[in-house]
User: Fold this.
Amino acid sequence: MKLGRLNHVGVAVPSMHDAIAYYREVMGASLITAPFDMPEQGVKVAFVNTPGEAGTAGTQIELIEPLGETSPIAGFIAKNPAGGQHHLCYEVADIEAARAWFTAQGKRILGPTRIGAHGTPIFFLHPKDMLGQLTEIMETPRGDH
Ligand SMILES: C[C@@H](C(=O)O)C(=O)SCCNC(=O)CCNC(=O)[C@H](O)C(C)(C)COP(=O)(O)OP(=O)(O)OC[C@H]1O[C@@H](n2cnc3c(N)ncnc32)[C@H](O)[C@@H]1OP(=O)(O)O
Ligand SMILES: [Co+2]
Assistant:
């Protein structure tokens, strides 16, 4: 497997509304997508874009707010009521090859491969196996690179 670009840093927030205001007013972000619900992932999502090198997409901040009774980030927000850095998401060219690569190393994969917020397949790796970092692997969207 070859590691691709850092696609996004997931940031769990208790209030999407307040987090968007923070990125606009405190951080000076001008490109923030409208929030949308991903009920099957248990989160509301909005992306803050940072600029990349000429002609490339910059790394995004993925704001995630708990959605529904069984949100996977409910426990994280309970422990970190102000919110906090939640996961790192790296791109790969081939999601199935990446899954096999981590499985062969005994890394715990959290649930099935599913379609993520960019419309490409993703999976998550347990933070206790990954230097304490919840790690998301996503297939690079077609047309990028
Ligand atoms: C939309 C999509 C996309 O980008 O396309 C997304 O990103 S959706 C992003 C949201 N979806 C996901 O995160 C899906 C995968 N996540 C999960 O399955 C879960 O969140 C887990 C990672 C298993 C954690 O679940 P939960 O907090 O309920 O379990 P737990 O309290 O037993 O936690 C087990 C241990 O892991 C630690 N822990 C929990 N969340 C962590 C995190 N984000 N980073 C680092 N450590 C973390 C806890 O403190 C605890 O450590 P101690 O035992 O030392 O206290
Ligand atoms: Co993510």
